[in-house]
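Hi both,

Apologies for the delay on this - the queue was longer than expected. I finally got the NAP-bound model through. Below you'll find the protein sequence and the ligand SMILES exactly as submitted, and right after that the structure tokens for the full complex including the ligand.
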Amino acid sequence: MDKKIIFFTGSSSGIGWELLKKLLQEKHFLILPIRNYQQKEHLKELVKIYKDNIDVIEMDLGNLNSLTNQNIWHRIKQYPRIDILINNAGIYTHTKHLQNGIELQWLVNYIAPAYLSLQLVDLLSKSNSPLVLFVSSRMHYMAKINFEDLQYSKHYSGQLAYANSKFAITSFSLYFAERFKNIRSNSCHPGVYSTGITRDLPFLIKFLWNTFIPGPKEGSEVLYQLLFNPEFNQQTGKYFDKLKISQAHKDCYNKEIQQKLLDFLEQATGIFI
Ligand SMILES: NC(=O)c1ccc[n+]([C@@H]2O[C@H](COP(=O)([O-])OP(=O)(O)OC[C@H]3O[C@@H](n4cnc5c(N)ncnc54)[C@H](OP(=O)(O)O)[C@@H]3O)[C@@H](O)[C@H]2O)c1
């Protein structure tokens, strides 16, 4: 199998952790943006074993100063190319957190993966088979975005904020595929699994979820198939529900809404689109 250079967010836990172990066994080279790396003993152990195949980059996707840090980007841009970008990192929060004046789920689930993808276009374009996967969620169908109040100043629902952020990244993935035709780009719902994503759920829901819902192994296999099986990875501009090409929320295809989301991204990060 071809050895790929893979930029992979959200590899320290859940679905991403399972996928990371498989990708390392196959000897791909992994660039891993990780927050609080020093506290992640399980990851440090893996890095010891696969030190020639991993580059850990300290990056907090929920912090704009870290996400846009020029020193970090200078280092990333030394790579000769990137073959695959896996935008897997995500959070669910039950209560509202603001970071740099922006609600945290917007930052981690939309602003960060969109910003990373745009920043990496040049390196992806140097690959002879570039591919981007955005991990979204079926929850995006529940989105109701109020563009007059993206900060949720009047009312906050963690579920709605999660749905809105996943809508935004699904919509962005469609925009990205159309804008950069040389880069294949898809989004997906990976399935429902018991992972760290439940950590901020109310106790009882978390307990029931973790008792009755299976662990993330199958989810990592879904991502693996989307990335490496030609039946799926030759597609572009698609939304997959697990391995099935599906229709995303109809408004994700709406150009006006896409533009409003791009404006939000530009205002937040200063990235020129
Ligand atoms: N599990 C499900 O049922 C389900 C369903 C639909 C969609 N998804 C999506 O699947 C993806 C993977 O989630 P998961 O279920 O595997 O959850 P998880 O176990 O909580 O993994 C999330 C990953 O994202 C990383 N992350 C979160 N905030 C970050 C930040 N500020 N900076 C850098 N990294 C950050 C986490 O790093 P830390 O270890 O530092 O927290 C972790 O590696 C997410 O996009 C999620 O929305 C999951």
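Main takeaway for now: The mean pLDDT is 97.

I'll put the files on the shared drive as well.

H.
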